[in-house]
């Protein structure tokens, strides 16, 4: 008789779309077609859509592996604990318990979407060669994952990394969160599209705005330029405070490639009077398997990449973004309720010899001794 295969359901819930999949203990990943989040229908509708999607993926797992999932890991935006989606400005929900997202009887664990993305980047992606970096996905909203000494850092209350709500223009536009002049209000993909439409009367996606800016459209160039300036202001403060070895930029807007990265690098350099600007200087391994910083910080595109490949003009020719990390980062939230150990997924999985979970209840990666 064939033995059931242990697996988890992994789901990445974004402000615009959600992506899901199945991950087995052997590291086999099945990525499924994404679907819209449906936030325009209100937060309750989003919760229902997530629950239905989880149920469909779990049903697929039962038919494929002969057993219910060991757990469900959901990477969600906003303020989040392991058991509650506390608040999301983009979606609008408040205090949603983890079990509301899943069918009855299936254990679930929530993780902050960006911090779990940072965890994935630190283990499998662009941050694997350094100990200290910022993961900054730019999508419907903006948040940052602060990775210090190889660990995602959530702060005293688990709410750290909300760089998208750092004020870049204190007398600027009001943000959906209630504050004034937030980075997200100017530089997120949704903000770029919204601000272009408000000024031009033309409807366009953020991708189309970037294309128009590159082609010389004055309104698109102004809006996109202000987004880049806002990013440079926020990142300059981050570099001065934490001195990272690397800034990993992902999300939909990162697909602009050189059109984003080159002017951002130039403007960031102009705001760092006594520090060197981000470059493509490679990191070097430190003692005892750690990573010591060598040289100034650099910018890199998020998502999967070959080791040693750094950001350059070729980024415009390839896909970069956190979407490729979705199954990895979502499953990091599920391991508390599963038999999985570190190294269950990714193209280069770590041998599963660790006796500790890869994430704690606060979403931080555990030690492996």
Radius of gyration: 20 Å
Question: Helix proportion of residues, in percent?
Answer: 25-40%
Tally of individual helices: 8
Kindly report the average pLDDT value. Answer: 76
The main pleated sheet reads as: 6 strands, mixed
Strand content range: 15-25%
- Write the element-wise H/E pattern from the N-terminal end onward: EEEEHEEEEEHEEEHHHHEHEEEH
Identify low-pLDDT runs. Answer: 279-296, 304-369
Inertia-based shape: globular
The counted number of beta strands is 16
Sheet/helix structural class? alpha/beta
- Give the end-to-end Cα distance, rounded to a whole number of Å: 36 Å
List keywords for this structure.
disordered C terminus, alpha/beta, 369 residues, 6-stranded mixed sheet, single chain, 5-stranded mixed sheet
Report on the architecture of this protein:
This protein is an alpha/beta fold and 369 residues long. It is built from eight helices and 16 strands. The chain has helices at 43-65, 113-124, 183-187, 189-200, 206-215, 218-242, 258-270, 326-331; strands spanning 7-13, 17-24, 29-31, 35-36, 72-76, 79-80, 84-87, 94-97, 108-112, 133-137, 145-148, 151-153, 246-250, 284-285, 291-292, 298-301. Strands 1, 2, 3, 4, 5 and 9 form a six-stranded mixed β-sheet that branches. The protein has a five-stranded mixed β-sheet with strand order 12-11-10-13-16, with helices on one face. Strands 6-7-8 form a three-stranded antiparallel β-sheet, with no helix packed on it. Strand 11 and strand 12 form a beta hairpin. Helix 4 (189-200) packs across helix 5 (206-215). The longest helix has 25 residues, at 218-242. The radius of gyration is 20 Å and the shape is globular.
């Amino acid at each position: 008789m064939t033995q059931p295969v242990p697996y988890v359901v992994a789901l990445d819930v974004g402000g615009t779309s959600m992506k899901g999949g199945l991950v087995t203990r052997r590291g086999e990943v099945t990525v499924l077609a994404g679907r819209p989040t449906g936030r325009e229908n209100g937060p309750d509708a989003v919760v229902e859509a997530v629950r239905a999607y989880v149920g469909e993926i779990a049903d697929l797992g039962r038919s494929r592996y002969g057993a219910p999932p060991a757990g469900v890991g959901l990477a969600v935006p906003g303020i989040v604990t392991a058991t509650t989606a506390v608040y999301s400005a983009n979606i609008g929900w408040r205090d949603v318990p983890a079990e509301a997202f899943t069918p009855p009887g299936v254990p679930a664990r929530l993780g902050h979407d960006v911090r779990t993305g940072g965890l994935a980047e630190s283990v499998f992606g662009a941050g694997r060669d350094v100990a200290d970096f910022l993961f900054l996905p730019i999508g419907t909203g903006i948040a940052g994952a602060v990775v210090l000494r190889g660990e995602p850092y959530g702060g005293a209350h688990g709410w750290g990394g909300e760089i998208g709500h750092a004020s870049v223009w204190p007398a600027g536009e009001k943000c959906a969160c209630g504050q004034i002049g937030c980075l997200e209000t100017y530089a997120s993909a949704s903000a770029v599209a919204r601000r272009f439409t408000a000024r031009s009367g033309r409807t366009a996606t953020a991708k189309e705005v970037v294309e128009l800016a590159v082609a010389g459209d004055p309104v698109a160039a102004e809006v996109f330029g202000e987004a880049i300036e806002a990013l440079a202001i926020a990142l300059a403060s981050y570099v001065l405070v934490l001195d990272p070895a690397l800034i990993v930029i992902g999300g939909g807007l990162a697909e602009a490639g050189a059109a984003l990265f080159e002017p951002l690098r130039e403007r960031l350099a102009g705001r760092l009077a006594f520090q060197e600007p981000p470059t493509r200087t490679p990191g070097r391994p430190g003692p005892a398997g750690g990573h010591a910083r060598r040289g100034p910080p650099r910018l890199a595109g998020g998502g999967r990449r070959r080791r040693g490949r750094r950001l350059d003009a070729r980024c415009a020719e390839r896909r970069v973004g956190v979407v490729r990390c979705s199954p990895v980062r979502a499953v990091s939230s599920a391991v508390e309720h599963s038999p999985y150990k570190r190294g269950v997924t990714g193209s280069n999985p770590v041998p599963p010899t660790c006796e500790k979970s890869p994430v704690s209840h606060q979403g931080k990666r555990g030690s492996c001794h």
